[in-house]
Amino acid sequence: MIVPQANKLTQSLWIPSWLPSWCPTSENQLKMAEDRMLQCVDGSFSRQYVPISGGNLLWTLTFNTDGVKGKTPVVLLHGFGCGVGLWAHNLCALSQRRPVYALDLLGFGQSSRPLFSTDAQEAEEQFVESIEQWRAKVGLEAMILLGHNLGGYLAASYSLKYPGRVKHIILVEPWGFPERPDTADEDRPIPVWIKALGAMLSPFNPLAGLRLVGPLGPTLVQTLRPDFKRKFSSMFSDNTVSEYIYHLNVQTPSGETAFKNMTIPYGWAKRPMLQRIGLLQPEIPITIIYGSRSSIDGHSGNTIKAMRPSSHVEIIAIRGAGHYVYADQPDDFNRRVLQVCDQMD
């Protein structure tokens, strides 16, 4: 359905036609890798493609048993380079008390990978509209939006445009909130070689290197990110997680390209959310969850709290957790999220 778009996208990013065969991956291998990620998730749930405009499809997991119907559902929005399978520690626990939906964002995971606008605002709007069309198609009147990393940024952006659909925003280690400091280079000197490398790689997507190493890609993921294997060691003793991450990130670049176009050098957002979050309707509560060991700047939570003195803003730090809070300390994370949600209904 979106093959013509994928071909056009491949050509526009200067990716040679031989690259897909160079990378040991396929859509089916991604599906199988996700199936292995979810094999430890207890309980019954459905998997489906939800159609939205442009012939695009959003891959969705639904947990909705009879005992939790009538409760406001939690909708999980993953971060950059991730997918629904990485919520494996959380899906069962969170769905015991209310419906849970996890979707692969447009351009990521098993969802469609269309062309995005090269304009940062338009690309952001494409993400937001895809979430709204998904919501309408699934038939949710209102939801608790929980977003990690890029998903947190999009949860905030969605809530600004569609506040009537959001009962609570839970921002987990959100990306894209602060502005890049004018003194960034003075306060934290960046070596010349890093600047040169950044300039050389700037025309390319963030994950282009993973594709260019071809058959070495799976080993590269295992070598550079051994922490992911540790995060899920209670579920898997093999390379299930690193294989899933590999197959997630070497498919046709789409959401990855949109993310690149939404950033300025060194990962700062072109359109920082702190410039707009003060416009959010005051009755929408916000919870910000950080890992105590994360390298992500946690000051944004305090800034949001100062900007919304008459609104509910809660900041939670999970001890012993890094950026991937939900996988680093899943029991504590699940417990705190359930507590937040129980305040709703």
Description:
The protein is of the alpha/beta class and 345 residues long. The protein has a single domain (27-343), classed as 3-Layer(aba) Sandwich (Rossmann fold), CATH 3.40.50.1820. The chain is 39% helix and 15% strand. It is built from 16 helices and ten strands. Strands 1-2-4-3-5-6-9-10 form an eight-stranded mixed beta sheet, with helices on both faces. Helix 6 (150-161) links the parallel strand 5 (143-149) and strand 6 (166-174). It is globular, with a radius of gyration of 19 Å. 43% of the residues are buried.
- The H-and-E topology, N to C, reads as HHHEEEHEHEHEHHHHHHHEEEHEHH
Round the Cα radius of gyration to an integer and report it: 19 Å
What's the name of the CATH homologous superfamily?
Alpha/Beta hydrolase fold, catalytic domain
**What is the top-level CATH class?**
Alpha Beta
Q: And the CATH topology?
A: Rossmann fold
Structural class: alpha/beta
Beta-strand share of residues: 15-25%
Number of helices: 16
Enumerate the spans where pLDDT stays under 50 for 5 or more consecutive residues. 1-20, 193-201
The average pLDDT value, as a whole number, equals 88
GO molecular function, one term: carboxylic ester hydrolase activity
Domain AB hydrolase-1: 73-328
InterPro entries: AB_hydrolase_1 (IPR000073), AB_hydrolase_fold (IPR029058)
Organism: Myripristis murdjan (pinecone soldierfish)
